[in-house]
Amino acid sequence: MAGRPRASSQGMLEEAASELFLEQGYAKTTIEQITQRAGVSRNTFFNYFGQKSELLWVELDASLKALTDALGAASDATPPLEAVEQALLATAAAFPAGRAPLVLTQHETMGIDDELRAAGLARALQHADAIELFLSCRLTGQDAALRSRAVALAVVGAAAAAVGRWAADGPAREPLADYVARAAHPVLTGFAIG
Amino acid sequence: MAGRPRASSQGMLEEAASELFLEQGYAKTTIEQITQRAGVSRNTFFNYFGQKSELLWVELDASLKALTDALGAASDATPPLEAVEQALLATAAAFPAGRAPLVLTQHETMGIDDELRAAGLARALQHADAIELFLSCRLTGQDAALRSRAVALAVVGAAAAAVGRWAADGPAREPLADYVARAAHPVLTGFAIG
DNA sequence: AGCAATAAATAGATCGCGTACAATAATGAC
DNA sequence: GTCATTATTGTACGCGATCTATTTATTGCT
């Protein structure tokens, strides 16, 4: 009961796209060019990606899965906000200091514009949703709903700032987790005492 | 030196668009339909709006101006983080409890999807940029760049959570500034002590 | 082997956003 | 009146994204 196997892998499309983005920028690269270089038909692109912008955020999609896993594995004994912090650091640990996603380091030559930033932000929102879902089950008291979402969006914002700085600091930087810790810890302590 | 006066006002396009969005949703409404109802040509739309999604976030654009003004008017004597909090509250004060932007309350019937959320997030990013610019001139010490951006993104995230809750709580809610205070204050105290 | 069932890949068409460029209309300055 | 300036309109086009139908490749059953 298994139909035709996937011939053109998703990775080939990503590679072809990365090359073209670096050569001539994101906006000037058409989906047709990507599929031609990958040796498949144009329509095949949409079997693997819903939108062109998804090509750049594959790494972030993986990190979303890591975050939900880490949150799901959190013990009930640890305080909720601490669990969030640990899950964030564990997720960040998957990014070694040496190699950062292309979209972060090469956004200049790729000509990343608002559309791209927005697509990245949509990914960040998914991370926030995961954290909010976790917190809304653990936090109690009045304002729990507001606090859950506020914590989630605030801490994701801080983490995004950390990622941006980390990428900008070049290959000689410290691991991403250090940056995330410095940016996110104040947020969580602030909510813990307030 | 004043050429042809503007005949079709921006407000008419916004009204026509709001009607159509409520009638048939955002995605199913074309720019041509909007301009037809407003009685202008399709191209005229692009004299007033760069993209279709801008129609929904006009109120947020006004709030961005209010925020930059409030930040610019901040006295040098007040601590930077306090100045940010006061500016946020002043900006939120412009939204009375009774009337919330359509996009926030009617996003269900309008069929707001990811594209729309992303467009709203792009506006939120501009708010964060304004706060970061303010802070990067005032904060000192190592990590000032990271901290400036982390504070800005985190506090804007918290404010966004407040706006979402505020809109969801219906017309009988308290003023928006109360929500923003509850969501943003922990973030700022967290960074103040950390 | 032959045959259905399933699923991927392709082809072809269409819609609508957004851009570019030229042409026209309405105003004030002279 | 002429001229410069600005808004509006017309026309065309590239490209992203969706849809439907068709072809191709694989598995499992007889």
Automatic annotation (TrEMBL), chains A, B:
Coiled coil: none annotated. Residues 30-49 bind DNA. Keywords: DNA-binding, Transcription, Transcription regulation. Residues 7-67 form the HTH tetR-type domain. One of its GO terms (molecular function) is transcription cis-regulatory region binding. Transmembrane segments: none annotated. The keyword Metal-binding does not apply. It holds the Pfam family TetR_C_14. This is TetR/AcrR family transcriptional regulator. The lineage of its organism: Bacteria, Bacillati, Actinomycetota, Actinomycetes, Micrococcales.
